[in-house]
Predict the structure.
Amino acid sequence: MSMVQGFDRKDVMYSLRNDIFNLILFPTEECNFRCVYCYEDFEVGNMPRWLVDAIKQLLTHKVQKLKCLSLSWFGGEPLVAKQILFEIAEHAYELCQQYDCKMIGDVTTNGFLLDTGTLARLVSLNQTRFQISIDGDEEVHNQTRITKNGRGSFTRIWQRLMDAAATDLEFHIILRIHVTDLNQEAIERFLKLYEQHLASDPRFSLFFKAISNLGGDQNKVQQLISKKSAANFVTELNARYYGDTSDKPNYICYASKPNSLAVRADGSLNKCTVALKDDINKVGRINEDGTLSLQHQKIGSWISGFDTLDKWRLGCPLSYLNAHPEKKNVTVGEINVIQVA
Ligand code: SF4
């Protein structure tokens, strides 16, 4: 791998190309779960009709100029609004076929609604990568990952994973394992289950994440957080499953990339998918005709990490900007900000 200042050179180059576009979509901000640490307030529901049409128009203009379109589905829980997701994905797929544009996609989902029919339809539209969060074995996962009706979600999610494994579909499911100070025995019990049933299937992999304070019910969250030992446990788990990762290239968050943009379910545009209410993250709106009204100075502050290849700024521009407020609202020089369709 060719590197530049600790980054994969290809990753840097692809982040700056304007014939590649990463469109992050929130088809709904409603969720079928009420996780105890969730930072969302569920004020915005499904994308309204005008917005679905506007996104389709944006894609109609944009895909003609692209070599690669990447769709990322967020929420809320994106599969709560499957019909919206499929309508946009099918439109994008047809355009990509017509204009010889590569199309890829990923879904960040809690997995509850990912039945094999839905999975097959997504895979047929090249939406093949999935990230599903797990908080431990059944007992512990069910204390935090609670459905809207107040029930535990583990059994259903596990069944979805087993059903997916039984197909011959070509997908990749990353299990994002939330590690806290108190769930480590439960994580070990979950990993035993994983090793028995899924570890030998190359379509599944693990991503360990020490959980940080994301908002939600602080009393419950406080009981779960002890960053130090959770971080140490994550290091241990990474070494166990992935060996020495010290030469891994630095991560570039999509929020840093000039060719990446998120459309929320109310039509507002964001760079980061976490701090939805932060003013610096409100970078514009999509109009009814599919054109974009962008605040270029705000966008400039998200993408300026490419000027110096700063590891922190490219890895998490949100935390960098919060620590360096003087870097907010900058005029960008050479870098091409997302072109208005
Ligand atoms: S900017 Fe930071 S918080 Fe936002 S999506 Fe990127 S890594 Fe996550």
Summary: The CA atoms of residues 112 and 157 lie 5 Å apart.
